[in-house]
């Protein structure tokens, strides 16, 4: 009988013929790899930059295009809603069409609609163009990770792959900082004012698209079991859009208005239909956009829900802080930009600090610290006086606490999410938490806008803003308090508590893969 079993490599190491690698680390020449990473980072920078730049310019955009008060939140919500709802759709699309095609599509599509935003004439045009821009933003994220995984195989003892992935991930805080600068300088000094923001990001993404065409290697494709879940993507997008639209319109036109009631009912009905449809797809062996079985793993459901609420605290404060400086204190765009600048610095410090702490103390405590920090940032503005300055009103501290809280909430939620699933599901699990943080903007802002607009006062122009900040405080405090029972005993990631069992889960998963592989091989006599 021939030898049917041989020593198999460690399951965490991908077998690679190192003589076929360039410098032993990459499947493509290093000069080409560096340009490819640069192109992917440029697109990621535009993703977060498009959000932060609008925090600086939101008041100027609303004034120029004559947004109604309840429409202003859609400057941010339209982008976040489309990118959040459709992000998971592009994970199987990368498999079906190839990551290279999706990455080029993402950069090109983003560029087209950024140009459209720069030429918008009405609020409705701008909102639609922003939503389409968000589609291009979210498509590039799973494509980038797929491409980097393709050109950077896992090599035992090499930290090069982790270094490149870290460089790519740094695009988020880099984009935040660059978005702040572009938002302030373009609005203040550009001949086309705030429209220059979108012209700048269109140019950056256009360069990314060209570099991807030149440097990105062909990507493998594979059949997605059951096909891509376009129906699920449509259901969740329509459902959440209708719900958030009705919640924002109801206070303005009346909750008894016919179309508000009708569309709200349709949106609420479509949500459980989406859940049932995804469960059905998973049970019959197809590929759902959202794998509902993941919600049964550990505290995955609780962490995603708390992550949405905790991150909404930061997003709400961040949104109202920019508007407060522009509409209440009358600050110019550059002055608003300078006030937001410390966020990028603290983001660079807070993200690695959160990652370090998660390796040594309970995930629950890290999450709660983040939620409380976000709540404190809103509290400083909620109790401030209109004459307070950036320094004597502790507003600098508010910006430091806000971004620190966001990083701690995000890192604890993201790392926990990928720690309770087997490796092949980590992309989808992490992607869902990313979706939750994107939806935090749309969901968080709609409720804060309802409360703020209900307390508008002609004698106290800052009253509605203070109520908006109090909603931010409420989000953060609720997340921190709810984390006590919901995350109790969660332990240190992969060391104590329930996540310590993930090692056994992964080991069992790989043992089954090896067993199935050998079981399929014929035994020769």
Automatic annotation (TrEMBL):
<feature type="domain" description="Major facilitator superfamily (MFS) profile">
    <location>
        <begin position="33"/>
        <end position="497"/>
    </location>
</feature>
<feature type="transmembrane region" description="Helical">
    <location>
        <begin position="102"/>
        <end position="121"/>
    </location>
</feature>
<dbReference type="Pfam" id="PF07690">
    <property type="entry name" value="MFS_1"/>
</dbReference>
<keyword id="KW-0812">Transmembrane</keyword>
<feature type="transmembrane region" description="Helical">
    <location>
        <begin position="396"/>
        <end position="416"/>
    </location>
</feature>
<feature type="transmembrane region" description="Helical">
    <location>
        <begin position="467"/>
        <end position="493"/>
    </location>
</feature>
<dbReference type="InterPro" id="IPR011701">
    <property type="entry name" value="MFS"/>
</dbReference>
<feature type="transmembrane region" description="Helical">
    <location>
        <begin position="197"/>
        <end position="216"/>
    </location>
</feature>
<feature type="transmembrane region" description="Helical">
    <location>
        <begin position="428"/>
        <end position="447"/>
    </location>
</feature>
<dbReference type="GO" id="GO:0016020">
    <property type="term" value="C:membrane"/>
</dbReference>
<feature type="transmembrane region" description="Helical">
    <location>
        <begin position="30"/>
        <end position="51"/>
    </location>
</feature>
<dbReference type="InterPro" id="IPR036259">
    <property type="entry name" value="MFS_trans_sf"/>
</dbReference>
<feature type="transmembrane region" description="Helical">
    <location>
        <begin position="160"/>
        <end position="185"/>
    </location>
</feature>
<feature type="transmembrane region" description="Helical">
    <location>
        <begin position="340"/>
        <end position="358"/>
    </location>
</feature>
<keyword id="KW-0813">Transport</keyword>
<keyword id="KW-0472">Membrane</keyword>
<feature type="transmembrane region" description="Helical">
    <location>
        <begin position="127"/>
        <end position="148"/>
    </location>
</feature>
<dbReference type="InterPro" id="IPR020846">
    <property type="entry name" value="MFS_dom"/>
</dbReference>
<feature type="transmembrane region" description="Helical">
    <location>
        <begin position="301"/>
        <end position="320"/>
    </location>
</feature>
<feature type="transmembrane region" description="Helical">
    <location>
        <begin position="365"/>
        <end position="384"/>
    </location>
</feature>
<keyword id="KW-1133">Transmembrane helix</keyword>
<dbReference type="GO" id="GO:0022857">
    <property type="term" value="F:transmembrane transporter activity"/>
</dbReference>
<feature type="transmembrane region" description="Helical">
    <location>
        <begin position="228"/>
        <end position="252"/>
    </location>
</feature>
<feature type="transmembrane region" description="Helical">
    <location>
        <begin position="258"/>
        <end position="281"/>
    </location>
</feature>
<protein>
    <submittedName>
        <fullName>Major facilitator superfamily domain-containing protein</fullName>
    </submittedName>
</protein>
């Amino acid at each position: 009988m021939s030898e049917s079993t041989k020593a198999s490599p460690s399951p965490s190491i991908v077998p690679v013929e190192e003589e076929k690698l360039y410098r032993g680390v990459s499947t493509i020449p290093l000069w080409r790899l560096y340009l490819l990473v640069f192109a992917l980072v440029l697109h990621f920078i535009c993703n977060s930059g498009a959000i932060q730049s609008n925090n600086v310019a939101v008041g100027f955009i609303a004034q120029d295009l004559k947004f109604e008060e309840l429409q202003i939140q859609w400057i941010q919500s339209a982008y976040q809603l489309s990118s959040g709802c459709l992000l998971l759709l592009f994970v199987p699309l990368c498999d079906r069409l190839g990551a290279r095609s999706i990455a080029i599509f993402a950069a090109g599509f983003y560029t087209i609609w950024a140009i459209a935003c720069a030429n918008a004439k009405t609020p409705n045009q701008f909102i639609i163009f922003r939503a389409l821009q968000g589609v291009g933003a979210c498509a590039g994220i799973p494509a980038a990770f797929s491409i980097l995984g393709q050109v950077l195989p896992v090599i035992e003892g090499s930290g090069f792959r982790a270094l490149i992935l870290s460089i790519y991930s740094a695009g988020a805080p880099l984009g935040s900082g660059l978005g702040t600068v572009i938002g302030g300088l373009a609005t203040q000094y550009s001949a086309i004012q705030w429209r220059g923001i979108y012209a700048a990001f269109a140019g950056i993404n256009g360069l990314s698209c060209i570099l991807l065409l030149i440097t990105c290697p062909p990507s493998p494709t594979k059949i997605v079991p059951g096909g891509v879940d376009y129906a699920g993507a449509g259901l969740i997008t329509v459902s959440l859009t209708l719900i958030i639209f009705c919640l924002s319109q109801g206070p303005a036109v009346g909750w008894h208005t016919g179309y508000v009631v009708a569309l709200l009912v349709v949106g609420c009905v479509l949500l459980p239909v989406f859940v049932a449809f995804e469960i059905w797809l998973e049970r019959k062996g197809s590929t759902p956009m959202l794998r509902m079985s993941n919600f049964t793993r550990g505290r995955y459901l609780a962490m995603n829900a708390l992550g949405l609420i905790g991150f909404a605290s930061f997003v709400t404060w961040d949104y109202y802080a920019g508007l407060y400086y522009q509409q209440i204190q009358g600050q110019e765009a550059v002055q608003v930009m300078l006030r937001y600048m410390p966020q990028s610095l603290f983001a660079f410090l807070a993200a690695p600090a959160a990652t370090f702490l998660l390796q040594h103390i309970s995930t629950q405590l890290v999450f709660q610290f983040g939620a409380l920090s976000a709540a404190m940032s809103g509290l400083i503005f909620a109790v401030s006086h209109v004459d307070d300055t950036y320094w004597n009103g502790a507003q600098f501290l508010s910006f430091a606490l806000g971004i620190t809280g966001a990083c701690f909430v995000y890192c604890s939620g993201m790392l926990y999410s990928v720690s309770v699933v087997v490796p092949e599901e980590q992309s989808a699990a992490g992607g869902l938490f990313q979706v939750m943080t994107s939806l935090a903007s749309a969901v968080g802002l709609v409720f804060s806008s309802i409360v703020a607009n209900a307390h508008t006062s002609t004698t106290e122009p800052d009253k509605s803003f203070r109520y908006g900040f109090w909603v931010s405080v409420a989000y953060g405090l609720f997340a921190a308090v709810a984390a006590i029972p919901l995350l109790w005993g969660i332990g240190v990631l992969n060391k104590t508590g329930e996540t310590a069992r993930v090692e056994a889960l992964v080991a069992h998963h790989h043992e089954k893969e090896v067993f199935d592989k050998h079981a399929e091989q014929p035994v020769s006599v």
